[in-house]
Amino acid sequence: MARPDDFAGRRPHLVPLLDEELEARFWELAEQIVQPLIELARTHTSPSIERSVLMRMGFDSRACAGIVSECEKRGLLSHGAGHVVLHCAGEWGVEVRAAGARLASGEGWETVEARWGESGRGAAPRAAAGQRGAGT
After folding, report:
1. Residue 68 near residue 83, CB atoms below 8 Å
2. Domain membership flag for residue 90
3. Exposure winner among 6, 81, 88, 129, fewest CB in 10 A?
4. What is the pLDDT of residues 22-75, one digit of tens each?
């Protein structure tokens, strides 16, 4: 089934636009299209997703499991395990992999508690399981 060519009828509002204006309009529409996907990615997570993020940051599966497990126990999964590791790396002035290794071994969680509070309380209220909060 062929779609009828209706471009000529939908085009008039684009004719007076300059190339720069067309490009700006394109990116505006592209942003509108992907915004729901960005919001979904920002607000929903799971241990599996967080392990995957950490693996893409260069951690092995054992370190990922340790960090995510501890984040989950502490109610921090909604902030993102990668975010937790990045925060610690910045606070400690070390590479991300070194910070993650330290967290995976059970060390340094007091830094995390200082940032987000015990059991994820602090910067933002804890989101429902499987969702990231607004203060991530």
Report:
1. no
2. yes
3. 6
4. 999 999 999 999 999 888 877 788 999 999 999 999 999 999 999 999 999 999
Question: Is 41 inside a domain boundary?
Answer: no
Return the bridge partners of 131, or none: 44
**41: which 2 tokens?**
């990615």
Q: Does 50 map to a domain? A: yes
Question: What global pTM score does this model have?
Answer: 0.60
CA distance 78 to 66: 16
Name the token pair of 61. 């599966």
Q: How much is the average pLDDT of 91-109?
A: 96
Instruction: Tell me how far CA of residue 133 lies from CA of 44, 104, 109, 123, in angstroms.
Output: 9, 23, 20, 10
What does the block give as tokens for 12? 């008039």
What is the total count of domains within the chain?
Answer: 1
Tell me how far apart the alpha carbons of residues 84 and 71 are, in angstroms, rounded to a whole number: 8
